[in-house]
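Input structure tokens:
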């Protein structure tokens, strides 16, 4: 009698062609964008007067996620691709999942609080040291970028560096673009700068390559402080204490206390939708206006990444301009009088933007 045997797991698919590389770098753009709405909802729901420390943490991460989006676009442009941002693919209905991930958890629009913190920790979770690169169905963002890194190295060895990095260098966002956060914009012109850009993304997210919690930068709000990776910044809020030198991912933070006022938050209804409100109602009109503004921003970012990098500074300014719209929404009570409205991040076609 033949014995039944378990199937041998398949190795993760390699990125083994320029077409595949460009496809995965577009996914990287979509992945970096997917982190923005959850962070914005957490940030805008905070009362900054009562929660200054939490607001600084969330805002610093959001700004760095914008940097990561820019670096992903630089990488795609460097290999001859064309970044796409003004597309319904970037604004799926919430709850959703990270693009092309393993679908092990839902990404939601939540007000700041314990549930939002757990979500952000799940998004930023570091990969374990022995984790294999995963080009699709990835468990962690680090594994996805490890697959892109391997693909870049392999294709350069196979095709030659000049053949891989054939893009128009005039499309690169450079350090001359105004940027107020930690880390740096890296113009990608070859394998070395591409790997630097990937390291910047991963180390800011999960710390320095499994070694420690630090990402090598300084805190944008407190330049005298060394900065920990995104995962560990969120963990500081959860545990109420900062990391200090000597602390490790295993030990956890042992530094000064971090105070969070859990009541100093607008009670935004999770995963708001314009369909929840009658056409013409105050909340729905405000949500529709926010969505038009946000989709217009995506269009301007797409233009900036497709030959007009000088527009990037203005587009980032528009992102801050959304703050007043979102905060105004979060102060509008819903019909239940227990929760407030919030931005819905629903896609609006160009023809409907007015």
């Amino acid at each position: 009698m033949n014995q039944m045997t378990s199937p041998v797991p398949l190795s993760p698919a390699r990125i083994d062609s320029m077409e595949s590389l460009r496809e995965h770098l577009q996914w990287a753009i979509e992945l970096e964008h997917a982190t923005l709405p959850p962070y914005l909802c957490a940030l805008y729901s905070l009362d900054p007067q009562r929660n200054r420390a939490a607001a600084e943490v969330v805002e610093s991460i959001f700004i760095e996620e914008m940097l990561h989006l820019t670096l992903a676009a630089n990488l795609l442009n460097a290999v001859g691709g064309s970044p796409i941002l003004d597309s319904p693919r970037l604004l799926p209905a919430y709850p959703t999942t990270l693009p092309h991930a393993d679908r092990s958890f839902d990404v939601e629009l939540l007000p700041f609080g314990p549930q939002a913190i757990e979500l952000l920790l799940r998004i930023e979770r570091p990969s374990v040291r022995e984790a294999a690169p995963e080009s699709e169905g990835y468990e962690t963002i680090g594994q996805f970028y490890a697959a892109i890194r391997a693909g870049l190295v392999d294709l350069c060895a196979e095709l030659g560096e000049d053949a891989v990095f054939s893009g128009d260098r005039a499309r690169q966002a450079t350090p001359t673009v105004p940027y107020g956060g930690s880390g740096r914009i890296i113009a990608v012109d070859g394998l070395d700068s591409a790997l630097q850009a990937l390291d910047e993304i991963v180390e800011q997210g999960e710390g320095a390559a499994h070694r420690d919690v630090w990402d090598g930068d300084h805190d944008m709000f407190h330049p005298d402080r060394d900065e920990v990776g995104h995962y560990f910044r969120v963990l500081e809020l959860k545990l109420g204490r900062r990391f200090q030198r000597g602390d490790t991912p295993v030990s956890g933070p042992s530094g000064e206390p971090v105070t969070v006022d859990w009541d100093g938050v607008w009670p935004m209804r999770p995963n708001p939708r314009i369909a929840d409100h009658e056409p013409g109602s105050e909340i729905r009109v405000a949500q529709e206006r926010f969505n038009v503004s946000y989709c217009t921003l995506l269009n301007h970012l797409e233009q900036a990444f497709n030959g007009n990098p000088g527009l990037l500074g203005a587009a980032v300014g528009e992102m801050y301009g959304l703050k007043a719209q979102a905060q105004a929404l979060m102060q509008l009570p819903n019909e239940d009088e227990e929760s407030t409205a919030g931005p819905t991040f629903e896609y609006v076609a160009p023809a409907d933007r007015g």
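Strands lie at 214-218, 226-228. The longest helix spans residues 52-78.
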